[in-house]
Amino acid sequence: MEKMEHAPLTEDFGYDGFDDEYSMASSSYDSDVEGGGSDMESGSSRRESSDGEPDKILSSQESQQVYCSKMVVYGVLFIAAAAVSTVAYIFLAREEENTMKVEFSAYSREILKQAQANSKRMFEELWDLSKSITSHALDTNSSWPNCTLPYFDIHAHDLKKKTGNLEFVGFAPFVTPENRAGWEQYSVDNQGWIQQDYNYRNWTHAAAPIPTSIHQYNGSGLTQEDYVFEDPQFDYEIPLWQIAPAQNDTSVINLDLATVPVFAHLLWDIKMKKVEQYSRIMDLHFLLGDNLNQNNPDHPRGTIYQPVMEDFRENADVVGFAMGTLTWDLMFENVLFDSSSPLLVEIEGTCNAIFTYKIGGESM
User: Fold this and answer.
1) Which end of the chain is more exposed for a tag (fewer CB within 10 A), N or C?
2) Which helix H or strand E contains 205, and what residues bound it?
3) CATH no. for residue 183?
4) What is the four-CA torsion angle of 87, 91, 93, 97, rounded to 10 degrees?
5) What is the pLDDT of residue 173?
6) DSSP 3-state assignment of 338?
């Protein structure tokens, strides 16, 4: 095979001319690119200036959203705080109310307990006086209603010292119509007990004579229909006989207590039921005389009673009664033993009267 010889490709295909054209095109492109650089830069600056306004608006909107979010958070916190405070207040108020109710109930029971203890002590001491009268009648073989307890003022003074509450003590027998004349004579003949008590008190003046007959109550203030007592079976007069402390005014002796409104109901119960009794608050000016003016005359007062028996048999008859008067403030003294809040105690009196005591600590 013969070897063929080829001419250079440059000559046959004209690569040299192609290179020249390529070079021209490249130069033209480069010049276009270089010349267009200023146009691109100016376009970029226009885009940057036009994009600045939206950025400012977006930033402003974001600030408003943050502010609103903060306000919402503050509002939620405020509402939550108010709700918590309200719930806490209601809870604490209920707790305080419950605590107050518990304390009030406890103090109420304490007041009632102490008042009952004071009342029981007074009734017991008055019962001792009643038994002393019965014992003296039996020892002296007295015929009822004619009985007088010697040194009555001393017995009453001891009783008052033990109770601390009774300011007046009295004794009265039950007198039937058949015994009235005999009683009136007996009382005149035996009124020396008054001078005896004067001497005990170192009073040097003579006692005024007592009324010579049983007399009726004619005072005012306790005469409403609700307290008028009429019972055909109650055929007794009840002359007040011995009293303590001694008084200068002896006109109260032989006062028929059965004619005193309110008293009659109680005394009838004492006679028939043979039980102790106590009255509601009542006006005792007619009974206490000078002693009332010396001992807080405006303080509400009441009375308690114990039957005096003929003897000590279980079925013995009631032949009289011992009585005592008290001011209700003494009933509540020293009831509360701490510095507790004051409590109000209401006591019902006659004629629908209501008396209120304010009790706090040891004060009344």
Assistant:
1) N
2) none
3) 3.30.450
4) 160
5) 96
6) coil
Q: What's the Cα-to-Cα distance from 25 to each of 21, 170, 239, rounded to whole Å?
A: 6, 151, 157
End-to-end CA distance of the chain: 154
**Token pair of 167, please?**
């300011």
Closest of 186, 174, 182 to residue 264, by C-alpha: 174
pLDDT digits (tens, 9 = 90+) for 127-143: 999 999 999 999 999 99
Residues 6 or more apart whose CB falls under 8 angstroms from that of 51 comprise: none
Structural domain contains residue 96: no
pTM over 0.85: no
19 falls within a domain: no
The answer to whether residue 97 sits within a structural domain is no
How many Å apart are CA 58 and CA 69, to the nearest integer? 16
Rounded CA separation 322/130 (Å): 6
Q: Which of 298, 293, 302 lies closest to 331, judged by CA?
A: 302
The region that residue 100 occupies, defined by phi over 0 for left and psi between -120 and 50 for alpha, beta otherwise, is alpha
Given its phi and psi angles, is residue 53 left (phi above 0), alpha (psi -120 to 50 degrees) or beta?
alpha
Distance CA 362, CA 359 (A): 8
Residue 80 Cα distances to 77, 93, 153, 241, 315, angstroms: 5, 20, 76, 79, 78
Question: How many domains are there within the chain?
Answer: 1
| Residues ≥6 apart with Cβ < 8 Å to 9 | 15
Domain span including residue 261? 102-334
The secondary element (H helix, E strand) that includes residue 100 is helix 15-139
Q: Which of 108-117, 302-311, 333-342 has the highest mean pLDDT?
A: 302-311
Evaluate whether 259 touches 175 at the Cβ level (below 8 Å).
no
- Distance set, CA 289 to CA 54, 119, 221, 243, 244 (Å): 106, 24, 16, 11, 12
Query: For residue 165, is it left (φ>0), alpha (ψ between -120 and 50) or beta?
Result: alpha
Examine residue 49 and state whether it is found in any structural domain, yes or no. no
- What is the reported pLDDT for 189? 96
d(CA 352, CA 308): 31
Instruction: Compute the mean pLDDT over every residue in the chain, rounded to the nearest whole number.
Output: 74
